Structure to design on (285 residues):
């Protein structure tokens, strides 16, 4: 998969990023063109790296419900809430954008290399403002957060401590005029102190996905889930694509089907409207 890029003076550069304070000079991406994803509603979901069972549960629930109605999930590929949001979006058949603090040839953290590949090949996008080979500086991790909020219509923080780095993202979102939302937590839990403080300062409290729809004035309906009808081979390939295994070679290795059988199976899935081809990869419709 080839890295693509756009400079800020290019007419196709995302307008939403050119308008934020300290806009990036250029962007690099792998996967779906961000312009395609920016046509859909987008919510950034961020939070604690040391996520609690409560934080994991609310992140999973809200991300799943948003993804199932076509909202693109934006986050930073970090440990904890970020990676949960990306993975749940993929599992729900939705789209997600991962913004890196490094160049695209250095996935950080390295433990999320496979997740990054799933995003890029599964209809999403991994994006960075740093050209390949760039040195990584500590300030990159804070600077990355302005792009996470900048790409989104609103920011949702599902769990964050008082001094969490997530507060930087909230600050950028407010500076950009974006809606900031937070999930309230137990008042005795240090891990929720950041969210609770944001709510006291005016952030929108979120206790259900309807709160997010209301804040963004969205009227979305859940995608109808089709009952699958096809051969065992077709169902197996369909499930593999749903897990993010999307290119022909990877599908062949995972399914152990010979080339002719795999090609005919993919053709039947496409004819019946279960999958579509995009940039050399297969995606669920």
């Amino acid at each position: 998969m080839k890295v693509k890029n756009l400079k800020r003076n290019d007419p196709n550069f995302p307008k939403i990023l050119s308008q934020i304070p300290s806009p990036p000079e250029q962007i690099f991406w792998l996967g779906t063109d961000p312009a395609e994803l920016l046509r859909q509603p987008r919510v950034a979901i961020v939070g604690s790296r040391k996520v609690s069972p409560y934080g994991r549960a609310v992140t999973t629930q809200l991300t799943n419900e948003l993804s199932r109605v076509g909202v693109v999930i934006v986050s930073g590929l970090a440990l904890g809430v970020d990676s949960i949001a990306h993975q749940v979006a993929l599992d729900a058949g939705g789209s997600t954008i991962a913004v890196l603090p490094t160049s695209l040839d250095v996935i950080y953290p390295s433990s999320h290399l496979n997740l990054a590949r799933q995003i890029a090949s599964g209809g999403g996008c991994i994006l960075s403002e740093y050209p390949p080979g760039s040195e990584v500086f500590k300030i990159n991790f804070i600077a990355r957060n302005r792009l996470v909020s900048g790409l989104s219509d609103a920011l949702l923080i599902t769990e964050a401590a008082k001094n969490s780095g997530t507060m930087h993202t909230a600050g950028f979102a407010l500076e950009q005029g974006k809606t900031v939302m937070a999930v309230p937590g137990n008042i005795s839990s240090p891990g929720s102190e950041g969210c609770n403080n944001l709510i006291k300062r005016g952030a929108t409290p979120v206790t259900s996905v309807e709160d997010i729809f209301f804040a963004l004035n969205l009227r979305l309906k859940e995608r109808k889930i089709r009952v699958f009808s096809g051969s065992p081979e077709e169902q197996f390939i369909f499930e593999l694509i749903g897990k993010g295994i999307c290119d022909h070679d990877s599908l062949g290795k995972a399914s152990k089907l010979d080339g002719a059988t795999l090609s005919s199976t993919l053709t039947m899935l496409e004819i019946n409207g279960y999958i579509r081809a995009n940039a050399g990869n297969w995606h669920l419709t």
